[in-house]
Structures are given as structure tokens and as C-alpha cells.
Model the fold of this input.
Amino acid sequence: MDGSSVPLPPSLERIVQRFEKISEPKRRYEYLLWFAKRLKAFPEAAKVPENKVLGCASQVYITAELQDGGVLFQGDSDAQITKGLVGFLIEGLEGLTPEEIVRLAPDFIQATGLNVSLTPSRANGFYNIFQTMQRKALQLEIDSKDAIDQSLKV
Done:
């Protein structure tokens, strides 16, 4: 498939397969923009430095919380294509465990065909957004284990 050692989770696999069926770059962009429209409203109060994705040409913010063992993300960007990338990643990773998210390789972007359609700065932005989501998932896992350790000490 895409050469990654870890199989894609079903939600991400479905999205990647839909992109694979789209041969026209314009239609690929339209599908990506559809993800931007599906994003929930991002709270202004969450637009703080610790939620900002570094290394993106546009303003991108990501938050993450752990709920029932799965990670719930929220995100936003001031650029529509980038916002679409955020939406695509959120839909693809939503509800996965932190461990599942951290184990994923970002090379699934090649199967979507977006890597050849995106400008170099947007492709770089995709990787930065993905890595930020992985870091936030990992931090949630660490915080969760610390909380369990603390409760066992009491």
C-alpha cells in the first residue's frame, strides 16, 4: 500500500482510499476543502502559543484531549487548504489511542496524491501538523500514566 509498517486505522484508510480514486488535482482540492467545512468551530480562547503548530506558513492550532482512551482533536487554520489538511487528519485520527497515533508514519499522504498537488510549504505544513498531533497524543498518554501513578500512591 504506502510502505508504512503499521496498517492504517479504518477511518484513515477510508479517507486515503477516497483520495486514491480521485485522479484530478482540482477534485482532490475540492475533497480537501470539504474537510475544512466539516471542522467544528475552534474556540478563540484556545488560540494560544502552546496550541500553535510551528513551522507552518499559515496560522494553525491543534488541541487534543483524552476521552475513553481515545484522542479527540480540534483544529483550525486561517488558510482553507491547510484547514482542509487539519480536518482530514482530525477525521482520520479521531478516537484512536495515543499509542496508535504515535505509531503511524505520515507516508500515507503519498497514497492520497496530495503530496504532488500541494506546494512544498503546504506539504511541509502537513508534516508539521501531523507531528504536532502525535506529540499532543504522546503527552496525553504520559499525563494519563502520571495520573494513574499518582492515584496508586495515595
Remarks:
- The helical segments are 10-21, 25-38, 80-93, 98-103, 108-112, 114-117, 120-153.
- The domain at 10-153 is CATH 3.90.1010.10 (Sufe protein. Chain: A).
